[in-house]
Specification:
The protein contains three helices and 13 strands, in the order H-H-E-E-E-E-E-E-E-E-E-E-E-E-E-H. By secondary structure, the protein is of the alpha+beta class. Strands 4, 6, 7, 8, 10, 12 and 13 form a seven-stranded antiparallel beta sheet that branches.
């Protein structure tokens, strides 16, 4: 299935059989080492990019205790330049939605713009400062569909010790930047997204398959 077909399977009540079957195929190829591309995302998961057409894309994301902890240089709180529709294949994921407000006095963070390329992410401090409040957390289990519009600040949280996998569909919104919350005095810097080695990818993919 391509992105349009996957989107249709999610639109009017998810077609669990079709979605899980499609993901099982992607993960099986990864577990067998048949050349499925995958990278370590700085936020602590493995991203398997399946389709990219212009500003639209499809990925499978897997969080696993076999992976290193998130090594973000700013914070886990960020917002996308694209609308996200995500289907939970296995495990559980929480979306923490903090209260992020622009302030001139007493800010807690500076906004950094994230400019991505095949070489990684260029993080550029902006002149905008904000205060982060606690907000709320939404939790989603297997078979759930959740949506995050472009520009909504959030942080993905998964339980310790388990494997979580999702199908992520993105659709770019023109004029909306990718942003993350960083330190007030942070400087511009670059973060790479290293390829996931075959051994790790096979272990992670098999763990996700075990949950399907």
């Amino acid at each position: 299935m391509n992105r349009r077909e996957l989107s249709a399977r999610l639109a009017d009540g998810p077609d669990h059989t079709a979605l899980r079957g499609w993901a099982r195929g992607v993960l099986t190829r990864a577990a067998e080492g048949t050349g499925v591309p995958a990278v370590h995302h700085p936020l602590g998961f493995v991203c398997l990019p399946v389709e990219r057409t212009g500003g639209d894309g499809v990925c499978v994301h897997v969080w696993s205790p076999r992976l290193p902890e998130a090594a973000t240089s700013t914070s886990g709180v960020h917002c996308h330049s694209w609308d996200l529709v995500s289907y939970v294949l296995t495990g559980e994921i929480g979306n923490r939605l903090p209260d992020v407000r622009p302030v001139a006095r007493g800010p807690t963070h500076r906004l950094f713009e994230v400019v991505s390329s095949p070489a990684g992410d260029d993080l550029r401090p902006t002149g905008r400062t904000v205060r982060q409040g606690p907000g709320v957390t939404e939790r989603h289990g297997p078979g759930a569909v959740y949506r995050l519009p472009a520009g909504v600040f959030h942080e993905s949280v998964v339980p310790d010790g388990g494997c979580t996998a999702t199908i992520a569909l993105g659709s770019e919104t023109p004029g909306v930047p990718d942003l993350t919350l960083g330190p007030l005095d942070g400087a511009r810097h670059h973060v790479t997204r290293p390829e996931c080695g075959d051994t790790t990818l096979r272990l992670v993919a098999r763990a996700a398959l075990d949950g399907l």
